[in-house]
Amino acid sequence: LRGLLQRGTQSNYCHLPSCECILSGLMSLSGKKVLHIDRNPYYGGESASISPIEELYKKFKVPGPGKSMDRGREWNIDLIPKFFLSELCSACVCIILFHVHMCSLFASGQLVKILVHTEVTRYLDFKIVEGSYVYKAGKVHKVPATEEDAHTSDLMGMFDKRRFRKLLLFALNFDVRNPRTYQDVDPNKMTTRDLFCRFDLGLDVMEFTGHAIALHGSESYLDQPCVETIRRIRLYSESLSHHNTSPYLYPVYGLGELPQGFARLSAEYGGTFLMNRAVDDIVMDNGKVKAVKSEGKLFHCKQLICDPSYVHSRVRKVGRIIRVICLLNHPVKNTHEANSCQIIIPQNQLNRKSDIYISVVSYAHNVASEGRYIATVSTTAETSNPEKEVQPGLELLEPIMQKFVSISNLLVPNEDGSKSQIFVSRSYDATNHFETECEDIKDLYRRITGSELCFGGSQRHSSHNSDEK
After folding, report:
1. How far apart are CA 71 and CA 52, in angstroms?
2. CATH number of the domain at 144-242, please?
3. A Gene Ontology CC term for this entry (predicted)?
4. In terms of Cα–Cα distance, which of 297, 266, 308 is closest to 428?
5. How is the chain split into domains, by residue range?
6. Are 358 and 448 in contact (CB under 8 A)?
7. Has this prediction a pTM greater than 0.85?
8. Phi-psi category of residue 181: left, alpha or beta, with phi > 0 → left and psi -120 to 50 → alpha
9. pLDDT tens, 303-362?
């Protein structure tokens, strides 16, 4: 490392965190020469886990913690919690091959495909999230996503239950490659609104299906082709059918394990990491990135990948996100005493344009002291008083021991990076699942390499020190 600092380096890629940790692993895996610079002393950037708990109080400039929060190092608090959609599928074979504990089940969402593809599963362990709930008329209800759930659900009347079951069966049997499963539905032309009308679903059923099962964050999906909504319903239902309690997984010890796993992968395949190191400047040559200047040293690169905080002039603001981290000493009411759960408040329930998301984890995932819970409420801010907007979610969590409020800008890149070779990720959105972030990773990979990110099998490079262009 000392020699590297003295002579500088020519890298294919320079990375700055935080989903960039995943990309640094992917690039190293494919044989690229990678330098990963992080201004923080820890991995993960804005999505990092904070431990011990005293550091969380310092970060938010809140006095404490008191004696009730003893054993501070037992806490791992995620600043931006996200759940994995899970499904017991062929990935189980990978679990055995990669020597991961059998209790570690996989997301059939896109992130787990990356985990399996890169074998980062060797570094992670997961536990099931115990419940998935939706808010309706001031009360929390379990989300139905199987025939049995539909039969017992208090969200629907008798006739709605029958129609909803028909929709579930249609989605589970649907195969986009087999037109015989379409049942006279053209998935690429029929809108989701028309699909719901075809099954004669009531407005309440449409609401929890679209927002708590298909996980759409706004109403725009209703007027888009229904193929994506069908895929999401099937994914959710298949995931839930294997675990009964919920379709979600969460890493033991928190999401901080995720960037660390990809950092280990990158290092294993020749990646170099410089932590706790400021970035002073990005050096350009004829409009194209040439180097990164850090503490007086130049690190030459062919391409640069970074989050919006490093290149303010190359991003634009498209909204604001509010997150409130809450420390609790009790499970959330009406969740069957669940040690972990997700609650979604659909936008129409509060006359909003975007949903409110609540994620709850606890000591069961080794992220808090015994008997303690961490709940995070998040949404896209729509007014000048974001804290008032999340109040309905906070009321579901009462009593709250301590709150930590953050409001951040939602930033997106101004350009695709093809000319400057600077590739900028999006800020994290308000959702508490990984699907949108995975779309960003796939989009970045496509822009950077000119090819699609494929998961057809391991593509580990034979050399750990390749300097392939």
Report:
1. 8
2. 1.10.405.10
3. Golgi apparatus
4. 308
5. 11-47+256-316+412-449, 144-242
6. no
7. no
8. alpha
9. 999 989 899 999 999 999 999 999 999 999 999 899 999 999 999 999 999 999 999 999
